[in-house]
Amino acid sequence: MVTGSLSMSYRSAVLTDGFTSKRTRKRLVSGLRSKGITDEKVLLAIDAIQRDLFIEDALKTRAYEDTALPIGYRQTISQPFIVALMSQILRSNRDKLGRVLEVGTGSGYQAAVLSGFSEQVYTIERIQQLLDAAKLRLAPLGINNISFRHGDGASGWAINGPFDGIILTAAPAVVPTILFDQLAEGGILVAPEGKEQNQTLVHWKKTRGTVRRFESVPVVFVPMVSGVIS
């Protein structure tokens, strides 16, 4: 697990060649810090991963803009600020995050960021081709603490729970209650919630078996959809 510096496996994801320079990522991190991201482990994780590696060639020139971008199948790679904010809420300055569940692998970028401060990331994607593409992107980076599953994320991944953190990268109208059952004591679930154009970033913390809800900022995410696509 990353405790103060990058692990050797995670360090290999810090690429100095390729589409972008490390200076570009530093500017992104500086911008996130100015917008209120204060968790240094989250900022370190953002700095370590080249976002352009998770974006199609036609959009690579926009990789370090603070905006969401399409990745196909009516899905997006989230705005860097939202990735950082959700990660910061998920961590909540906890010294140790063990198992983390991500519902909605998408491009694989959020999973890569989560891997920097979690012992093990379990990520579920309902669209097989997106999952396959994410695996291909992540494989060369030497990140060895991500497990993948093709499935309906609304059911979670109970066999690998309970989870210290659960993060949803698509918005349900209401978070499925089964996911709260898979949250460990003291665990935090972060999700966009609500219908399109009326969504809020929320999180729940489980204490003594009860979850308490907190609201953050208005957001716009693709809707969470049930079922799988092979």
What would you note in describing this structure?
- There is one protein chain.
- With 230 residues, this protein is α/β, with parallel strands linked by helices.
- The protein has a single domain, classed as 3-Layer(aba) Sandwich (Rossmann fold).
- The protein contains seven helices and nine strands.
- The strands form two sheets. It has a seven-stranded mixed sheet with strand order 5-4-3-6-7-8-9.
- α2 runs antiparallel to α3.
- It is globular.
- The protein starts with 7 loop residues before the first helix and ends in an 11-residue tail after the last strand.
Summarize the structure.
By secondary structure, this protein is an alpha/beta fold. It is built from seven helices and nine strands.
Looking at this protein, list some descriptive labels.
disordered N terminus; single chain; alpha/beta; 230 residues; Rossmann fold; seven-stranded mixed β-sheet; two-stranded antiparallel sheet
